[in-house]
Amino acid sequence: MNELALKYGCNPNQKPSRVFMADGSELPVKVLNGKPGYINFLDALNGWQLVAELKDATGLPAAASFKHVSPAGAAVGLPLTEVERKIYWVDEGELTPLANAYARARGADRMSSYGDFICLSDICDVATAKLIKIEVSDGVIAPGFEPEALEILKSKRKGSYNVVQIDPAYRPAAIEHKQVFGISFEQGRNEIKIDRDALKNIVTENKEIPDAAKIDLIIALITIKYTQSNSVCYTKNGQVIGAGAGQQSRIHCTRLAGNKADNWFLRQSPKVLDLQFLKEIGRAERDNAIDVYIGDEYMDVLAEGSWQKTFKVKPEVFTREEKLAWLEQLTGVSLGSDAFFPFGDNIERAYKSGVKYIAETGGSIRDDNVIETCNKYGMVMCFTGIRLFHH
């Protein structure tokens, strides 16, 4: 089959809609269940490239949670700590490396991942399918599915869940095309390989990057390669913990991603872990409640008394001072940027979220200022010489 008809394009008024191979060859994807839409396929195909590159670069199974053509999270299959299992709502059952990768990818920013398209580097196993089944998601793409895992996924959303299989041997042409306003664009595919060699040009006084941080930096760079620009990505423990996508100003990217990284770490604080939810409160509602609790809105919730709709007992206020004290313990974070930092203010903001290791393009007329700011905090920064804009 070289063509699939879709219900509509980005919006219901955009018809007709289809995906097809212009050269008449077979599509490299098969729909095993459901009926994916236009945006679903955009997420699936971008996400597949991301996880395939992560697997190739690290040798570990990889997963990504995609929303509106940017990753809400991405990760490799490192084991989860007890705290991580709890904050990702996967504290029961055995987890395979692929399941660990998906739990991490989904857990980076659970609010943004709501209704995601899931991308897996490896054949979907039963443990991963069981995690997917209990989350709100639009679909999944993988190079294959274990028979039992496929049946689990096909039972999701009353049998309409989108399951897509991709041929891992597929390689697109070296030149890619798209149309905007009836005008055709053509460019060479971004086939640049990101690995440890990209981290060799260290420009700061501190030049020590441990192996774990190198993996995190590679994850950050590969992730922003498939994130709408401008983009900045914070990583730790083999996963994205904050991604800032599509901002016109780089400092706004850094702030957005940093705020998400802060929220990821605040979820691990004892006060959040001790929250007691009513039995009928679902996973998504718990995520929303935690976001309110760690934000500034909780005082309003307390004043209104509406906490009783969510919690068994009244949670203590998480004060600003307590949050700042907890966030001071967030250290060893890695950061990747899809282009150079034009000012040292990006470094100042990154430092507040525990960033120690940075990979950015370099080449700004203010590189000296950016390097100086890194040196002030004992950070390690390498210039990759690689720009990773994605549009």
Structure description:
By secondary structure, this protein is α/β, with parallel strands linked by helices. The chain is 36% helix and 21% strand. It has helices at residues 38-58, 82-87, 97-107, 110-113, 126-133, 147-154, 211-225, 250-266, 270-273, 283-294, 298-304, 320-327, 345-352, 367-376, and strands at 3-6, 17-20, 29-33, 62-67, 70-76, 116-120, 137-142, 162-166, 175-180, 183-188, 231-236, 239-245, 333-337, 355-360, 380-383. The strands form four sheets. A six-stranded mixed sheet has the order 3-8-7-6-4-5, sandwiched between helices.
Outline of the structure:
The chain is of the alpha/beta class and 391 residues long. It is built from 14 helices and 15 strands.
What's the CATH first level of the largest domain?
Answer: Alpha Beta
What count of structural domains?
3
Overall morphology: globular
Strand content: 15-25%
Average pLDDT number: 93
Instruction: State the major sheet.
Output: 6 strands, mixed
